[in-house]
Mitochondrial ribonuclease P protein 3 (Chlamydotis macqueenii), 238 residues
Amino acid sequence: SGQCPVCNTQLEDSDLTEEEYNNLRERIIRDVIHGTDTFRKTSPQEFEAFQTFVENRLPFDIVIDGLNVSHIKPRKMQCENLFDAVSYLAKENARLLVLGRKHMLINSSNWKREIMKEMQNKADFFFAENISEDDAFLLYATLRSGKHCKFVTRDFLRDHKACLSDSVTRHLFRKWQRGHQIVFSPSVEGKHINFLPAFRYDCVVQTTGDTWHIPYKDIFEEKYSFQVPRKWLCIQQK
C-alpha cells in the first residue's frame, strides 16, 4: 500500500505528473532513441517499421524484452521461459507486446515452432533483425502506450539514463523506471517464474522532517543489482 505500518506515514508515490511524463517521453525519444546510440545496432528502416507497428496497436499494458526474459532459467528451453512469462503476465487480460528476434521463428532446440505459435495467441510480437538493440524499442513502445504501461527486462538501462543530458531528466527517468519495471523473483527455485510487481511508491530515502524511511537490502547481490530493495527502515525522532 505504501503506508508505513510503524508510523502510518504514506510514502511518496512513484507516479510522475502529466507534465513530467510528457517531458520525459519527449527527451527519451529525442536523446536516447533518435540520439547517437540506437542506429548503431538497428537500421532507421527497421525502427520506422517498428514505430508503425506500435502506433497501429496502441496502447499496450506490458512490454517484454523477449530475448532477455528467455534466459531467466538457464536449464530450461528459452521458448519455455518466455512462454511461462507471457502466460503469467497475460492472466489479467493485459495487452502484451513481446520484442523478439527473427531467429526465434526458426525451429530449433531452443525455439519450438508450436510453442511460439501458442504464445502469439496471447501477445503481440515484433520480430527484429538478430543484431538489433532491444532497449530503444522497449522504451519507445512503453512510453508511447501511456503512464499505465509497465515493462519487463532484467537490464538496468544505465546506458540510456547516461544519454540524458541533464540531471532533472535523469532523476525522472529513474523514478519512472522504479515505478514501471517489473522484475522476476530469482530466489524462487520452483517450476514457475515469479514476477515482483512494479512499486506504487517511490523506493528512495524519504523524510517528512521528523521521520525518515530508508529502503535497504539484507544482502548485496551483484547479480541482481537491477532489483530494488523491498525492506524499509523507519526512523523517528523522539
